């Protein structure tokens, strides 16, 4: 009897579900888009219940495809999902959302992050590996909800990430059953002891967050419940399938591209592009103010990693296609743009794109997205290459931090949607002066979820070996010295422009945006 495993990835732009067989081969998959709302400048909200609906739609599509192929859905052994580590929603006692879901794209807590950072506390870096509060951290979203959400003040019981929210509904869990795996726990940014995998009472008191609002900590492969009759009918699956606690998207994507050992690196080229390096624990030289790195615990036991982020990486690509090109939802248009951009020389004819579409951070908190240096010759192809280069320029800063700390970067594996662009992969290889590879078997987080689901029910004995044995390189991109030097020169000029020369301009532009908001 063939065994099957269902995994889903609840990302920022979609919920993708897939079913894999015992050889971890995909036999059915489906993706359902999600919606983002922008109620105020710097605010980005989503609907947690729409996440559940999207997951149900994707799962049901997979079960229907299995039936079309004559494959028995009753042989699905377990369900495992991953979600965004930098985002939470507030729920009532029944486990239902009573606040918007807020994630890393939202910057409403910038002032709170600055106020907490001004305290100059060492406990953040010592216990979490993160030296400074960041407006992307769920810990700060929780503080905002506690202070500003009347619904949560009246009926709030727990804060949940999006994957646990979906999994809880599939299993019929209430707030009292709330859970979080040890990797996603580290997505909170503050409020926990990362190496002990527990909440930190001392930090929580500083943050003024009651432990009562926080879920219990579990292992990713723990079974937290079973598929209810209600959701069995909605998904087309049989009731009673074991449901795992799940994991964080970044953690699963890293495993999926082979980053399971110290000094291995990955570019998780999704909505928020993440550049990750595996380590064996907190490194003081990387956990210091100014590095702009975030530290997390991995899915596998005793694994850790740092990552630098480009907040609007993949989202900037989608924004350009939808809002600038008017090709909303047309995935093939990415390929059209990229093919045209191949004819544009490195440097995009001098055009620069600043990818701060959801606001800046740190020293450039007032920054906004914009194109600079355009002429009458500037067209879509030039602008598209400028967008690709802009995101890659931000990778240079992360690479410099790693190398300054003595980390050897010789190879970077690119995964998720961005890995499909040969042009972008070559740009990154040139800019980062590093070998870039993609994988034949890369399925991102969803494939990893299926393997973890199999491990959860005892069908895979060695999870790490299962991941590593399933990886084969697809393409290799080698840096060109001339383009490396050229891009480095542009990067240095761009960095000075953004961090020094444009500060006053960003402040003025922020005032203009505020004035425009008042006219709505």
Automatic annotation (TrEMBL):
Similarity-based family = Belongs to the FGGY kinase family.
What's a Gene Ontology MF term here? kinase activity
| The Carbohydrate kinase FGGY C-terminal domain, residue ranges | 268-456
Q: Which organism is it from?
A: Anaerotignum lactatifermentans
The protein's matches in PANTHER family, at most eight in alphabetical order, are given as:
GLUCONOKINASE, SUGAR KINASE
Which keywords does this chain's UniProt record carry?
Kinase, Transferase
Residue ranges constituting the Carbohydrate kinase FGGY N-terminal domain according to the UniProt record: 4-256
According to UniProt, the name of this protein is FGGY-family carbohydrate kinase
């Amino acid at each position: 009897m063939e065994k099957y495993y269902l995994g889903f990835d609840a990302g920022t732009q979609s919920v993708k579900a897939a079913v894999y067989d015992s050889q971890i081969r995909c036999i059915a998959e489906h993706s359902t888009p999600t919606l983002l709302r922008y109620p105020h400048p710097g605010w980005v909200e989503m609907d947690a219940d729409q996440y559940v609906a999207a997951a149900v739609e994707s799962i049901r599509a997979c079960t229907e495809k299995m039936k079309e192929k004559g494959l028995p859905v009753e042989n699905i052994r377990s369900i495992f999902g991953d979600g965004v580590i930098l985002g939470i929603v507030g729920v009532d006692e029944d486990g239902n959302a009573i606040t918007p879901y807020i994630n890393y794209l939202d910057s409403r807590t910038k002032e709170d992050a600055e106020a907490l950072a001004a305290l100059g506390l060492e406990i953040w870096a010592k216990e979490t590996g993160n030296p400074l509060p960041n407006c992307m951290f769920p810990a700060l979203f929780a503080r905002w909800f506690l202070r500003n959400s009347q619904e949560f003040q009246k009926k709030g019981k727990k804060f949940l990430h999006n994957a646990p929210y979906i999994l809880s509904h599939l299993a019929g869990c209430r707030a009292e059953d709330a859970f979080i795996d040890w990797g996603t726990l580290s997505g909170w940014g503050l409020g926990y002891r990362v190496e002990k995998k527990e909440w930190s009472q001392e930090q929580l008191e500083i943050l003024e967050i009651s432990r009562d609002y926080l879920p219990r900590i579990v292992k990713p492969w723990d079974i937290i419940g079973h598929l209810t009759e209600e959701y069995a009918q909605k998904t087309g699956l049989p009731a009673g399938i074991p449901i795992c606690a799940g994991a964080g998207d970044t953690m699963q994507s890293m495993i999926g591209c082979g980053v399971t050992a110290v000094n291995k690196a990955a570019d998780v080229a999704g909505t928020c592009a993440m550049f990750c390096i595996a380590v064996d624990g907190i490194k003081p030289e990387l956990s210091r103010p100014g590095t702009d790195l975030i530290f997390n615990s991995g899915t596998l036991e005793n694994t850790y990693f740092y990552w630098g982020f480009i907040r609007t990486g993949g989202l900037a690509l989608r924004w350009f296609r939808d809002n600038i090109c008017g090709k909303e939802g047309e995935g093939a248009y990415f390929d059209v743009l990229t093919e045209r951009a191949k004819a544009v020389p490195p440097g995009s004819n001098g055009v620069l794109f600043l990818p701060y579409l959801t606001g800046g951070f740190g020293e450039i908190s007032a920054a906004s997205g914009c194109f600079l240096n355009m002429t009458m010759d500037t067209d879509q192809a030039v602008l598209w290459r400028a967008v690709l280069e802009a995101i890659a320029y931000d990778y240079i800063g992360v690479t410099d931090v790693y190398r300054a700390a003595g980390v050897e970067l010789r190879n970077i594996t690119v995964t998720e949607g961005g890995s499909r662009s040969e042009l972008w992969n070559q740009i990154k290889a040139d800019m980062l002066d590093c070998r870039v590879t993609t994988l034949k078997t890369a399925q991102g987080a969803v494939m990893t979820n299926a393997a973890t689901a199999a491990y959860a029910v005892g069908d895979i004995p060695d999870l790490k070996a299962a991941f590593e044995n399933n990886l084969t390189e697809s393409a290799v991109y080698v840096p060109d010295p001339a383009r490396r030097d050229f891009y480095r020169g542009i990067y240095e000029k761009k960095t000075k422009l953004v961090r020094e020369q444009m500060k006053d301009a960003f402040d003025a532009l922020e005032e203009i945006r505020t004035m425009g908001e008042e006219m709505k």
